[in-house]
Every structure is written in C-alpha cells, then in structure tokens.
C-alpha cells in the first residue's frame, strides 16, 4: 500500500522544505564492506552473490524507518513494502531492471529473484514494482574494481541506490567498496550511515553452514 502523507506530520518536514526543490538533492556515501561471509556462503551453497547482497540490503533497509518514505513528484509518499531492484543482463549488450519484493525469508527472496530475473531476461521487459513498493536500486559492475560511483540525478528517480563492483580478496578477508546514494528529503547522512552499518552486520550474520 502507498499513500501520500503531509510532510508536516513527519520528522522529515524540515528536510522536505529544504531539499524537495533543491537542484541537486542527492547525497552519496562510500563505505568498504567486509563481505567474507557472503562470498563463502555463495560458494558453499551455490547461491548468487548478487542475490545475497540484495537480500542483505533489503534486511538492513527494513530496519531503517526512513526507507519507507520517498519524495515522488514533489509529494512525500509512505510505503508499507520494500523491493530491491537489480540490473539484468539480456545477453546481447542490453540490460533491463527487475524489482524483487523483499522478504525476510532468504529462500522466498531467492525464489522470487531467480524467477523474476528469468522473466525479465526472457521478455526483455522491466519488472516494475515502483507503484506499490519503495524500491531500492542496485547496480553491480562485477568485472571491474571500482572505488565508488556518484550517480546522475535527473529529478525523476529519487529512490535510494547502492552500487558496487567486483569484490577484492585480502589476506584474511574479502572486501567490497559500495556507494550509497539517497535523496536528502528521505533521510540524513546519519540515517544513511546507520543503514550501511546495518548492512555490514547483516552480511556478518549470514549463516554460511
């Protein structure tokens, strides 16, 4: 369910006034995550690393109240569901996006992730949940070791966005630099930094068996 709310009735009232009409309201934070457990789980259980990252992002976001609010068309909308978007390689140099509804249950999320990305690859059409879910965008530039990305802002897509490249193996752990972009109306830097801390904790809590 999605509903427009009065910003004055939220703790984002001042931010709405300050940033809703700003020419560049996006903020980007950079952090290097320890993804050792995610890599081990991926290898041992035959699970896609990208899917694990998306699920951990959804888990961390679901514990962050500000993710359920989003500025849309100069209105503040409240959502009661989250989705994590992933970029699907269509196999011929073209791509499209797939929004996967977040589930607390990893097996359910994995099932939806695999089924929906196959559907996008087959139909070559995006799977879009933005009308019913607050969608967290992601993009994985896996073949490349990047330190971070500052994304474009077109004034249309205000959703939070997480970007990463290939992970890097160190002596005792595996690390992954990520970029997290968000609209300042939706949250402040403190909320974003806490989200990244939660994301790190979710990765460390993965059951690698």
What is the compact description of this entry?
The protein is α+β, with helices and mostly antiparallel strands and 209 residues long.
How far is the N terminus from the C terminus? 36 Å
Compute the number of helices.
Answer: 5
Largest sheet: 7 strands, mixed
Structural class, please? Answer: alpha+beta
Structure in words:
By secondary structure, the chain is of the alpha+beta class. Helices cover 31% and strands 30% of the residues. It has five helices and ten strands, in the order βαβααββββαββββα. It has helices spanning 13-19, 36-45, 49-62, 106-123, 189-204; strands at 2-5, 26-34, 69-72, 75-79, 82-89, 95-101, 134-141, 161-165, 168-169, 174-183. Strands 2, 5, 6, 7, 8, 9 and 10 form a seven-stranded mixed β-sheet that branches. It has a three-stranded antiparallel β-sheet with strand order 1-4-3, with no helix packed on it. A hairpin with a 2-residue loop joins strand 3 (69-72) and strand 4 (75-79). Helix 3 (49-62) crosses helix 5.
């Amino acid at each position: 369910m999605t509903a427009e709310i009065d910003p004055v009735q939220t703790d984002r009232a001042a931010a709405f006034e300050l940033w809703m009409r700003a020419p560049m309201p996006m903020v980007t934070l950079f952090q290097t995550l320890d993804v050792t457990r995610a890599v081990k789980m991926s290898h041992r259980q035959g699970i896609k690393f990208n899917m694990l990252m998306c699920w951990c992002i959804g888990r961390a976001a679901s514990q962050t109240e500000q993710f359920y609010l989003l500025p849309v068309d100069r209105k503040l909308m409240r959502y009661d569901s989250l989705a994590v978007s992933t970029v699907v390689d269509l196999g011929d140099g073209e791509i499209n996006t797939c929004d996967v509804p977040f589930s607390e249950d990893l097996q359910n999320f994995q099932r939806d992730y695999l089924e929906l990305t196959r559907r996008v690859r087959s139909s070559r059409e995006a799977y879009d949940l933005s009308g019913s879910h607050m969608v967290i965008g992601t993009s994985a530039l896996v073949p490349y070791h990047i330190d971070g990305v500052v994304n474009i802002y077109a004034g249309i897509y205000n959703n939070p966005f997480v970007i990463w490249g290939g992970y890097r193996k160190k002596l005792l752990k595996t690390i992954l630099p990520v970029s997290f972009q968000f609209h300042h109306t939706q949250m402040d830097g403190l909320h974003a930094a806490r989200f990244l801390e939660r994301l790190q904790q979710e990765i460390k809590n993965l059951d690698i068996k």
